[in-house]
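Practice problem 4.
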């Protein structure tokens, strides 16, 4: 650490932090990105993203970090007799991708470095205080503790965020435990289709997923609420012998996903911006957080960079420009809260009514009113779902 004072310090080099560092550096600010792990992408992830995620990350799809292309998603109802098919082409979406997330993050890191950002891995931020107009970060790296100073601070340090603890209230912040296996020698129905399974028997208040990484390997995981996740994942795998009888687990990972929606404030007037998982910026019903984090990091990094270099920048510009995403997160949270009140037989019934487009609208929080209107004509769902979605 030759230099000790920076315009902007970004804590955490996940998708949010890497994007924030790049965009802050692009403004001409001197930027330091601190990552506690010794390598990027240590955290478990299903690694599925939409094509528009890469467009927002301003990166062209490349075999350097993409291992599989995704043309659709199957959502299986609890009885698994009914499945709702969501094909991206039919819905007018670009195709999706399965990332090698470590390599994807390295690509984002390369872009940040090319813009002039400094990155330090193996550097844990232990504490942060503000005095005499500067943030002072206590950083431990390779056994040594030092101090870094900066004008602006961007917290992209995930679920256990120190920056959030120091500067923000995370009332309503909620995580669910997830467990994921990397499995090889699977017999997948279609290696270009993601599969998700819902139901109280399969995954109480969550879902199980099979995200193919190749013809025969997949990320197979589960998120549940109020119960340990691993027994449910093992049960799910045992219940699908056609796919998994000859498959083997080559990696076991676990991590929580925030599903409580975005926290109330993501800007602290002293000069702190909070992004990504740290701020609850995850689509609650899907648990997808790469895209939402990338966009948040992109805006927050740019605002923080300009604020440090020019001064006199309204930091509220960040939540204002992120409003479309905040709304989608809120819509998806409302859908989640309503759907989790339904029993398995109601979920089976719902799968008969909803189309792929409806599911995308609900899960990703695009147009929940449209689904609300449709459900108003179904007596069993009119009050509990239809009107509630319309009043959201
Ligand atoms: C099992 C599972 C499956 C998922 N699958 C998908 C999926 O398929 N698609 C999708 O879009 N999303 C998925 N997600 C969600 C997605 O992984 C996250 O939403 C996304 O990574 C959030 O990015 P982030 O940059 O905010 O935080 P993170 O990726 O969590 O990065 C935070 C970084 O901060 C670092 N850090 C923390 N504290 C400190 C500190 N004190 N000092 C320095 N560094 C620190 C951490 O080491 C970490 O690298 C999944 C999550 C889980 C758990």
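Answer key:
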């Amino acid at each position: 650490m030759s230099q000790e004072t920076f315009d902007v310090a970004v804590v955490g080099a996940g998708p949010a932090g890497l994007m924030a560092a790049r965009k802050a550096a692009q403004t001409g600010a001197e930027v330091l990105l601190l990552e506690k792990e010794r390598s990027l992408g240590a955290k478990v992830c299903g690694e599925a993203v939409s094509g528009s995620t890469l467009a927002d990350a301003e990166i062209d799809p490349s075999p350097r970090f993409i291992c599989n292309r995704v043309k659709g998603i199957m959502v299986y109802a609890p009885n698994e007799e009914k499945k709702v098919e969501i094909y991206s082409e039919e819905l007018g979406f670009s195709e999706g991708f399965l990332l090698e997330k470590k390599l994807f993050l390295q690509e984002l890191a390369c872009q940040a470095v090319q813009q002039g950002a400094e990155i330090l891995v193996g550097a844990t931020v232990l504490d942060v205080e503000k005095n005499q107009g500067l943030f002072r970060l206590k950083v431990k790296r390779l056994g040594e503790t030092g101090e870094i100073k900066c004008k602006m601070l961007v917290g992209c340090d995930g679920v256990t965020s120190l920056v959030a603890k120091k500067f923000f209230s995370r009332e309503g912040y909620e995580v669910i435990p997830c467990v994921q296996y990397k499995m090889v020698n699977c017999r997948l129905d279609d290696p270009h289709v993601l599969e998700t399974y819902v139901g109280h028997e399969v995954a109480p208040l969550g879902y199980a997923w099979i995200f193919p990484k190749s013809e025969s390997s997949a990320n197979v995981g589960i998120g549940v609420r109020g119960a340990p996740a691993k027994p449910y994942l093992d049960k799910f795998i045992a219940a699908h012998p056609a796919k998994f009888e000859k498959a083997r687990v080559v990696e076991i990972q676990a991590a929580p996903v925030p599903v409580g929606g975005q926290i109330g404030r993501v800007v602290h007037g002293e000069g702190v911006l909070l992004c990504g998982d740290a701020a609850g910026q995850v689509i609650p019903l899907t648990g997808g957080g790469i895209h939402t984090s990338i966009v948040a990091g992109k805006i927050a990094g740019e605002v923080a960079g300009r604020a440090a270099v020019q001064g006199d920048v309204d930091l509220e510009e960040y939540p204002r420009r992120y409003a479309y995403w905040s709304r989608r997160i809120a819509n998806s949270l409302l859908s989640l809260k309503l759907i989790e009140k339904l029993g398995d037989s109601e979920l089976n019934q719902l799968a008969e009514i909803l189309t792929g487009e409806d599911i995308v609208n609900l899960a990703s929080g695009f147009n929940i009113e449209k689904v609300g209107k449709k459900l108003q004509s179904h007596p069993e769902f009119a009050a509990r779902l239809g009107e509630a979605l319309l009043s959201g």
